[in-house]
Amino acid sequence: MKQTIKAALLTLALLAPTAAWAAPGLGGEIYGATVSPGEFELESRYDALAGGPDDGEDMLKLEMGYGLSKRLRVGLQGEFEREPGGPRKAEELGIEAIYTLGRVGGIDLALYGEYAIGLDGPDKLETKLLLQHRPGPFDLRLNLIAEKELVSGARIELSYAAQADVAVAGDLRVGVQAFGDLGTFDRVFPAAGHMVGPVISTEVEGLGPELQLEAGYLFALGTTRQDTKGQFRLALELEF
């Protein structure tokens, strides 16, 4: 299993990673593996760390995307970070794409690629293998991530993002999100940092565009606890 994951991530890295997040999941989104053709999306995400030396550090991420076909979605995203006690700074501008591969054994598969233009650092590449399973009211997602700064000697960093949620009443969904580091190709699955916690989301219709709201809190685990105790998450998305 370990060799399979390494091979998949290496293939993605060669095909198409940002540097590792200040904390796993900060500004991170867990992508599904399907595309809605003709759909235009606007999203804002605000994440803030709570407790520990990094208390007050936050990330504002703005993104827009469009489904060009049933297989291809393209988008732009910008990240604006603020260190504790400092001003908000533009970190990067990213160009991204999702290409669906189809369904295997009830699991939807897709590839994600992003080129991030560094506004306060080096340019970066990011790739993800997106997996999604939707049995009944459940939605299970796993993103396997490879990322690399475009500077000499920089290693490919591996990480993951996962979510499991279920519809409990109408458009109200509750679940769990998890983010974490997986090391590098030289050292996979080391002692590392993780973020895990509950999430709740809902949709609001009747306003013209469909409005989606998401809120959650992640608890720091492993080495991440050296820097923070947790992370507040809030996201707003409009679909046209």
Provide a compact summary of the structure.
With 240 residues, this protein is mainly β. 6% of the residues lie in helices and 60% in strands.
Topology:
Elements: H1 2-15, E1 40-50, E2 58-67, E3 72-82, E4 88-104, E5 107-118, E6 124-133, E7 138-149, E8 157-169, E9 172-184, E10 193-204, E11 210-222, E12 230-239
Antiparallel strand pairs: 1-2, 1-12, 2-3, 3-4, 4-5, 5-6, 6-7, 7-8, 8-9, 9-10, 10-11, 11-12
Give a verbal description of the structure:
The longest helix has 14 residues. The relative contact order is 0.20. This protein has one domain: Porin (Beta Barrel), CATH 2.40.160.40. It is globular. 6% of the residues lie in helices and 60% in strands. The protein is mainly β and 240 residues long. The protein has a 12-stranded antiparallel β-barrel.
Low-confidence stretches: 1-21
What is the CATH-assigned architecture? Beta Barrel
Q: Please, what is the average pLDDT?
A: 91
Give the oligomeric state of the chains in this entry, treating copies of one chain as homo and distinct chains as hetero: single chain
Looking across the biggest beta sheet, what order are the strands in? 1-2-3-4-5-6-7-8-9-10-11-12
How many angstroms separate the termini? 40 Å
- What's the β-strand tally? 12
- The percentage helix is under 10%
Query: What is the CATH T-level topology?
Result: Porin
The ordered H/E elements are: HEEEEEEEEEEEE
Please give the radius of gyration in angstroms: 17 Å
Number of helices: 1
* Morphology call: globular
Beta-sheet strand percentage?
Answer: over 45%
Which class in CATH terms?
Mainly Beta
